Amino acid sequence: MDALELIRLNLLSPMVLAFFLGVLAVLLKSDLSFPEPLYAALSLYLLFAIGFKGGVELSKTSLEALLRPALATLLLGVLTPLLAYALARRFLRVRQEEAAALAAHYGSVSAVTFLAALAFVQAAGHRAEGFMPTLVAFLEVPGVVIGLLLARARGDLREAVREVLVGRSVFLMVGGLLVGFLSGEEGMAKVKAFFVDPFNGALTLFLMELGMVAARRLQDVRRLGARLFAFGTLVPLLHGGLGLLLGHWAGLSLGGGVVLAAMAASASYIAAPAAVRLALPQVSPSLYIAASLAVTFPFNLVLGIPLYYALGRVLWG
């Protein structure tokens, strides 16, 4: 599969096309909108389904197989916020608190990017390890916590960490993971028609809504300038490359390594914003939301994931 075929495979997937349909709806001032209850229901469904399917796979995985990938993921959870913080301070020249807010977002994970990467490697004929949702949880928490520590937040830091741990993204994924792990294949057989077969359809609708949200943030990108655009595209490349190297070291398959790279390259827009707003109210959300959702997310969706896959094929040989 050549580079053009990789890009075609990604661009013509229903998920990516739905994302840009949402962007187009905003640019053309369409009256299209998602009811808030539907958006919330899709979020809950996707997050629990991710965890549940991962838990079923985890019930069939040995501790020995999980150990090195878990260590690699935790290392990513420490390194990526530190790198993002240093780059934000040096190249964006933002204040310490603003750099820490960006570090929390770029150290954490976008669950939808994770899902898009899973769908991509599957379409490319590969299969990521079933315990990958476990690694999402491992990467989600340390990135946010380190970002908040970098801001030297006082008073509210403990509450902010609690907010991350019990927030819907981590809670649902970890909870779903536990349910899937305990119920195993027998439990999966009972709910497969709801949590497996309709999954990609729900993801497609969710991405349409995200496309509309991203389009509404384009004004922020224009206002903050080219440096924010450069930050939002170069940091994912750096983090994605690091994810590939650590995934290879951990013994993941090509599919698993590419998904880990996409996880490291992504930026959170669910758990991290909730925590940052609580701990760093003086930082404008337009900075980190515009960077993560209007720049990094579409970049990974269109170019990043195929690029990580192409680099992975070279690394895995």
TrEMBL record:
Alphabetically ordered keywords of this record: Membrane, Transmembrane, Transmembrane helix
Cross-referenced Pfam families: Sbt_1 (PF05982)
Transmembrane region(s): 6-26, 68-88, 100-125, 131-153, 165-183, 195-216, 228-251, 257-280, 287-311
Domain of life: Bacteria
Protein's name in the database: Permease
